[in-house]
UniProtKB/TrEMBL annotation, chains A, B, C, D, E, F:
InterPro entries (alphabetical): HD/PDEase_dom, HD_domain, NA-bd_OB-fold, YhaM_exoribonuc/phosphodiest
UniProt-listed SUPFAM superfamilies: HD-domain/PDEase-like
Keyword match Transmembrane: no
Organism: Cohnella fermenti
Record-linked PANTHER family: 3'-5' EXORIBONUCLEASE YHAM
Protein name in UniProt: HD domain-containing protein
């Protein structure tokens, strides 16, 4: 079965794919005809597709997020590859294919990721900090296993948020060893809490963000997570003016570093400075790693990456 | 008694003033001699002053924020007027002078200002919004009567914060009449809440800010007030995800308009847009009004005003 | 008759509309066929439309800015609604429809708006200021009744410019009452003059700006209005170096506040600071009000508004 | 006689100099003593100087802009050279020194510069353009001979403005020869008019700007010169909407290129683009030439130059 | 034969043109049909074109950069003119047309340009500077005759780079005469070297840049030319730390003036300041000249020019 | 012996210190008296100091970078502590103090640091990369042991440059383990080379930078190191256009990430992205660590840190 990532113009192919998006449109013909405007994907990537002359039955058979068996061919449209679907039917249980095989996901099983995060939380020595972290984790727990870390920017796949946290925790652990003046409890808590409100900021299913939520647009995950910490303190009977609550709020509020990047205050504790750079480094290197992994090996350059000053990455031949 | 504002180089004067700041320093002489580096003020303004040859007794007699009777003269130092104090004694009850006469304060009695704010709060029709506003007002009530609205930027005097609120409430009322699509309850609440956490952000006495608090630096009044709203909701049993809590948080979070000015989100409700402009207009016009009022009438130009792109204001002769 | 604002995909409709724009295009067919690329509007909004297979007669019958009776249906094209016109004929006198019913216009009759502006001008106490304002008003008088205040930014409709002025005058009157140190004559004059040269800056008909004029591009309404004031002074025998001419020019030149927004000098008189904020507040709140009014009630969010940092406005459900 | 430019710490000297600035100050001694805070200059440069123990007679004898015979020595104060004046008397006619020998001035006699400018104006072929230029020249004519082009930025000396114009005219002439599509009449007029209002923008005497004028601050030389063009047109009966008046205004308004540099519109005619670059190139190269000329030959680097991104210029040893 | 620049909608024409770009695409029809998406050009300009129903033979007959005889008509597509090719055949020797007649090129023969550059190089008095310049010229010599100076920004045509150099050398010569303190050897060398690495930065054929090279993206012509100077010094036995090598590197490294424009250091020698302005002035004026020359005389305005703050140029009717 | 870091106003002390800076100045007295303006330091920090009434002998006895035995007292001058030296003599061999005990230095012996760097270099698998790194290391070898990494920004002490490299190498090693797609040879080489030209950019002795060199100002360490790589390739017979030379140059050229921070190109290989973040993270965390270490424990806040958006760091009391 041809992986989406490997498809080239003029290819013909047949196989199972996911209808990631599907919209019914009409041609300019008189009378106009219905067709499907589709985004077809598998775990290796996605491509736009057209299914012409959709019948009334078709319109009741095919839906977004459904698995299908497709026969089609690839051609160039406005210099980008596009699929023309010539035949399509829904997958059946007999086909033995499963939705989760067709979406991009973190390279580590998300249950394992969540377990590592829980263990790290349990390993926080300070009881009050640990309980605040636990309170916030509970707010998202069911969603932590599958949420992406962003809409498109970085870690935009199933389990991406948890994967981002786990990688940051590794980097944080290294830094605490290299620079013992850093408070490990605070840094762990900061890493777990910094993006903890993302599941409330974005609407996502199967690792795919459809939109920002109203709360996400009007408050944002930064102020939201900061308020969760206060809420936790109130509920757990920890004074909201204590240095711990102050320190945790500061970690969350400052982690985007600059006002124009959404942080109302700038990092002013050692751990807040560390958190910002751990977050930035992990996000940017993941963008690079994912861009290289999803670019065909035959290409010298990845596509441009918005989060890296809109630069592409070059594969040195060394 | 000569008002500070009217003092000109070569003037000699005698009268009561406030020692707004006082530091003991030493001359370069051998052996070094002690002297006082002073900021002398009354309600019309302030000037730097020197008191040379401070004796041991003097050092136990004079303190910052003390009222004193002073004889002195004005001269130019690095092109700015400075006072040389030739004689000084502490004020006594017999002098019949009172601290509050010597500090700048809002032109309306601060008790009246607080009363107007309370009445406005009571006039909020929506009960949940009213109770959240009341909860937050209680947090600062004793300080609302005397806090300034900022360290130096605008309304930097006794009662300045409450005065800023009241003037904004007048402008808000006008706008709600001019544009009935605005929700008056929300706008009133937004005006009262937008700077409500300033007393926690800054340390101030007698309308004079000495410094930002740790909380002020690490969280800032914007995220702080937003957290107070959540705290109020938790304590009052109002769902934290309700549209009202969302709307109030958004008003507070967005009122500085841009990320680089400290707002993690931009105004995205009609009332939030209105609040930002009401706040900006009142602050800027007050800067202009205060600069003109404290500049001698003989001067065509006020000093430069930092909050107005560092421009001075010209008095047109019309 | 279905209002444009209420049209949804799949709707079929019949009624009178305005051909706001009409261009003859050709299909890719061999031989190519002519069709009309149309913008159809009424006072509630506008939508793109196609009229296929335009005959030679059609091409001589239909023109931009003509009223037509249309039968059509709405469909989605590139995720935006578009109209397919199936039948169309020009409106006739017998239809009893009038062009002005089909364009967006200010909510107050523009004759009333002009009258208020004239009365305000007449109420300026200072004779020289009044005569300069009168001179400039005469330059645009016939156009003041119908010009929009901008191409798309704000008040972009029939009478928008006059409506903007009148609303600003109300706000200015409030401020002069709230802060009596402001010179009311200057502020009124500044409000009337600040955008007075817009009719020379833009080419507009029926409240619709087709383009900026050469003068608009090469000089701009700010420097243009400033030059009109000088011209008025020369013609009326008022010294061009007088404080009044200086003050009026300054009001106009500085009202965009910053160099990057087109003002060669920044506000440096009390009235100039006030004018800038009155202008900004009225423009922004009108954008919000108009965006909410033209967005279907069923939508939580308006479209993005360029003049508001490209943010959409949310309708709080309170 | 030692030139200011050549003075080094520890030098003792005697000679004639100009008291460019003089202020009476008082020491911290008890009782305080008067002293003069002075800027001493000759045509090669300037240095700060102190004259201690100024007597009552001294205070009636010495004034700013007076020529004096000085005996003094140079020492370092805060890492910069400063003069200590040990003896000083006013110059007398018998000394045979003249004020103009002691100020910096353009390297060409300013009468010659004005003559060249007048001749260039007379050489403008288009009569209307020529008459407008002549009208504006008349407004400043007596001042053109001595005004500097800026306060400190560039050409800040006697005749600097005229010298800047003449050099730009040479460059303009070269460009018109190199690129004949440029309209020489327009370019000449643009060069003469672009800074023509500077004498109204700044208060200057003997090539030294003491301050910006009120008009300079509130209108600026750009909008001012643009208004002069309109005034000229009105007075000379040339239609203010003509392409010539439009073109000349555009040249003046756009010559600073960007809004943040004070131009309300950007260059949009060929000559306006040329004018901006001629102006920038001449100003910057003159800054470099003057900085090198006033820096002692023993120094590898000039002082930092504000107008060149605050960079110093290095003298390559080639 | 109709020049591309003169083609207007509805025109029918026949003549020889260059297939600057050609891609095979497919229509949405079932089954899809092949067509050519073409950019057709001659020396006066270029237009997009379609050739429908491309046969298998056509696909083997027509290629990018081939000369063809075309019959076609012009129509509007999305408000821009587009060509519909109705008949097409490859040019044959018998047609007597030559590729170089169909591409844009500098107005002076590129052999002459190269000769002038070589002569200028030979005229550099300092032997070491001359040999370094010669070494770098050799690296590009065969390409200097045809490379453009940029992809689209300016001088984007056959011989554009050499033409840019020659024009700059003229301007440099004028400046050295006007300001003799400039070192002519350095300035000549700087002009020849500043863009000398462009042929390694971009892939170009017939004056048309297809893409930036990997070296161009990863190093850029500025650091590249600076390294060539070091390489030259090493190979020629000139000390790499000498003032000459330092001065030449500095000229190249600083010529874009600011970090955000790609220069790692800012101009800090007199010649480096001159070089930056010579480069900027020549590039911008050429943009203006070329935009006016390629815009039909009937148009008042050229298209917007990216390199001129995205402004269009107006043709004053004087 | 009192450490500089622990000195508080009113302290009297005696001990050995380093005269980091010493300048002879003169008082305003008549006749003026000589005094020394001094910066006194030990390994814990530095303070300004005055030594009044310097005799002729004193002026021949004391010099910058000399060790002295000092008796003095601390007082406040302009709100900052300053030392008044009452007695001072040069240290003698008998005192048994050594210069290196009085300067700040990296916490690891610089010989060990250099050894680690050499070993890392030897561990680079690719021979050509290893030889280029070795060539560049040789250029600075004697200076690598003691140079600081910057003038004041970060690692501004003896051995700071080598310490910065070693810490970055640790971080790089961690990242290569965490993300195996990174090329370890390239990353190691990039870390060693990125600041390798700093010793040529700055003039430093004993870890104290006195100034930038001419080469540093005119070329900068980024372009300089890039040229060294080319020089190495030329000398070692490695093709300058090879992917390895390209990759190494790119690492060095892009490591400041943005043009405004001095990089002419932005990171476009995986290792270049990693290098930038490793460099930034190590520099910033070291600033934090050093600021906390040199701030008295009694202080909640460090001084403001220029490299951290001018923010101070707070010591959370957790």
């Amino acid at each position: 079965m041809t992986l989406i990532k490997q498809m080239k113009p003029q290819d013909e192919f047949e196989g199972f794919y996911l209808l990631k998006e599907l919209e019914i449109r009409q041609t300019n013909a008189t009378p106009p005809k219905d067709y499907f405007d589709i985004v077809l994907c598998d775990s290796s990537g996605q491509l736009p597709a057209k299914f012409w002359d959709a019948s009334a039955t078709d319109k009741e058979t095919f839906f977004a997020m459904g698995l299908v068996k497709v026969r089609g061919m690839v051609h160039l449209y406005r210099e980008k590859p596009q699929i023309k679907i010539t035949k399509m039917r829904p997958a059946t249980p007999a086909d033995g294919v499963s939705l989760t095989d067709f979406i991009r996901s973190a390279p580590i099983d998300s249950k394992d990721l969540v377990r590592i995060i829980e263990q790290t939380k349990d390993g926080i020595g300070d009881e009050e900090i640990r309980r605040i972290v636990a309170y916030c984790l509970e707010k998202v727990e069911d969603r932590l296993a599958h949420y992406p870390a962003a809409k498109t920017h970085h870690h935009a796949y199933y389990g991406g948020l948890a994967y981002h946290m786990v990688r940051m925790l590794e980097l944080g652990e290294f830094l605490c060893r290299q620079r013992p003046f850093l408070n490990a409890d605070l840094l762990k808590a900061g890493i777990i809490l910094h993006d903890i409100a993302k599941p409330d900021e974005m609407n996502a299913e199967m690792g795919i963000v459809s939109d920002y939520s109203n709360t996400g647009k009007l408050i944002g995950h930064i102020a939201l997570a900061s308020a969760w910490i206060v809420e936790a303190a109130v509920k757990l009977g920890i004074p909201t003016e204590s240095e711990k609550v102050l320190g945790l709020q500061h970690l969350v509020l400052s982690h985007h570093n600059l006002g124009e990047w959404g942080s109302p205050v700038q990092p002013q504790t050692a751990e807040a400075v560390a958190l910002h750079f751990i977050d930035a480094m992990d996000a940017k290197l993941q963008m690079v790693e994912d861009a290289l992994a999803t670019t065909p090996d035959s290409e010298e350059w990845t596509p441009m990456i918005r989060g890296l000053e809109n630069k592409a990455i070059y594969r040195l031949k060394i």
